[in-house]
Specification:
Elements: H1 7-15, H2 17-24, H3 34-45, E1 52-56, E2 60-66, E3 70-74, H4 81-97, E4 104-109, E5 114-118, H5 122-140, H6 159-163
Parallel strand pairs: 3-4
Antiparallel strand pairs: 1-2, 2-3, 4-5
Helix pairs in contact: 1-2, 1-4
Length: about 160
C-alpha cells in the first residue's frame, strides 16, 4: 500500500523535521497559533472567485485550480519559500502518478502581490521519492528528532512543546 504522505507533511519536512514528527503523531498545535489563524484568513479572503480547497483522496488539498490548468497554493510570506514550492511539486507529482499531465503549479503570495510558477521535472520526481522515504522514516521514529533551534522556532505553533 502506498504511504499516505500529505502536502502538509512535505511542507513540514522542509520547515522542521520535529514539527513533521509531531504532525505525523497527531500532536496538533496550530489551532491557537496567531500566524496559522492569519494564514487561514488570508487564504479564505484571497482569490474569492475560484473554487477553493480541492481535496483529493484526503492526501492533497489544493487551494484552488485556475482556468489555465494551474493549481495554486496560497502562502502568507516567502519565509519558507522552498517548503511551499516543494509542496506544490508534490501536488503535481501526486496528480502525475494518477495520470494527470500538462498542469503547472503556482505559489501565490497575495500580501506581496507576487507568485512563483512551479513545474515538475524528472529530477524533482526522484527527489520527491527520496523525501517520501525520509518522511516515512521520521514517522516511524519512537521519539521526535532533535531540536534544531532555527529563527523559525520563535513563531512556531510547537514552540512551547519544544522549548518549555
Amino acid at each position: 500500500m502506498e504511504n499516505r504522505i500529505t502536502g502538509v507533511m512535505i511542507y513540514y519536512y522542509f520547515v522542521c523535521r520535529r514539527k513533521l514528527w509531531y504532525f505525523c503523531h497527531e500532536i496538533r498545535m496550530e489551532a491557537e497559533n496567531e500566524d496559522v489563524i492569519l494564514g487561514k484568513i488570508l487564504d479564505e479572503s484571497s482569490y474569492s472567485k475560484n473554487e477553493k480547497h480541492i481535496n483529493i483522496d484526503n492526501i492533497i488539498n489544493i487551494d484552488f485550480i485556475s482556468e489555465h490548468k494551474e493549481l495554486h497554493e496560497v502562502k502568507k510570506s516567502k519565509v519558507v519559500e522552498d517548503a511551499g514550492i516543494w509542496q506544490v511539486k508534490y501536488y503535481l507529482y501526486y496528480l502525475w502518478k494518477r495520470g494527470v499531465k500538462g498542469i503547472k503549479g503556482k505559489v501565490d503570495y497575495p500580501l506581496l502581490k507576487k507568485s512563483v510558477i512551479v513545474e515538475l521535472s524528472e529530477n524533482d520526481i526522484k527527489t520527491l521519492e527520496k523525501i517520501i522515504g525520509e518522511i516515512t522514516e521520521i514517522e516511524c521514529m519512537d521519539t521526535p528528532p532533535m531540536i534544531v533551534n532555527s529563527k523559525l522556532c520563535k513563531k512556531c505553533a510547537y514552540y512551547d512543546l519544544c522549548f518549555i
